[in-house]
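Anyone opening a protein record will find just a pair of labelled lines. A complete record is shown below as an example:
=====
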Amino acid sequence: MNLSVFMGKIYSFQLPKKIIFGTGSSSTVGLEAKALGGNRVLLITDDNLRSSDLMKNVEENLLSEGLSIDFFSDIRSEPSLEVAEKVAEKARGGGYDLIVGVGGGSVLDMAKVASIAATNKKSMRQYLGVNLVEKPGLPKILMPTTAGTGSEVTHVAVITLLDEEAKSAIVSPYLFSDVSIIDPRLTYSMPPRVTASTGLDALSHAFEALMAVNANPITDALALQSIGIIFKYLPRAYVSGDEESRFSMSLGALMAGMAFINSWVCLGHALAYSFSVKFGVPHGLSCGLSLPYAFKFNAPAIRRKLPQIAEKIDVNYREKISSPDDLEIFIFNRIMRLLDELNAPKRLREIGVSENDLAKIASKVLTFTRLIEKNSRPISEDDARRIVMDMW
């Protein structure tokens, strides 16, 4: 790795205060909660998990430490601002000492909302944006039941704005968890489609971390390792969901989350946000659809990284290309093949987008300025139109 390209810049690297990873690690939640102090816990989850054996085990661990528990489980995927306000109301009315979130990225994001709502009294809409949260929130423990969003290690809570057919986010260091517990066992029950969607979300995080302007040696190392893990194990997790593939995907998603939260996501997520709400596409699948086209556009700006990416995807890649100039096409085609293996959409027309919708989608891409500004290659209106047409 040529480190000279990173000289002359200053990078910051932030993570939760504590990360616990490993099979069976969820059994530590009671001890970790007790160590954070207080007695009254608000346990955030969703209705599907609320009555599961998984949740019973978490509840028993908390009760065994003498903690009292209250639940909030009225959360669906891609939570709206209205849901965030309900979570905030719940958190403000119960005298809680601690928030525990157990679920997918949507649940974990709402656990972060609960944490800050207890100490910050404005409406959640007023915190949409960067560094608008005024006070630290309640201590929180985050436990993912999917392998993909990385929410357990990020300082972001994504919120859907239904009226605007768009997504926004609360971004604040106060959203980092006090303890993140990543137990692959919690992902065993994921159905194939959720496995594919969340896995593609993780893969997008890793690729976009490499393509963002704040990429650095630490985030690159994490992102490249994540790409290697995901390409090897995501198809297997999708088909069989065996223990090794679940363990590996939990690790790969964790590393991708650690990478992107310190370099940021960019064009891929801007593209995904431009159509996912209007056409009802899950976040991970919209990111997966967008990824190859975002990579194709950005490849000239990250050319020195292409051999490293290709090697992580296929250690024998040199035997499959005629010259280094073929690397971009090789990686693009390999991403497209992965989408095929996961029965995931590769074109906008596959999700119901008509040609008449393309101009609106392209114009919306450029409205996500916090993402576009982080992209390694400037994007013009004409670029956005060409990319969206290519996606169609």
Observations:
- The chain has two domains: 19-187, 192-391.
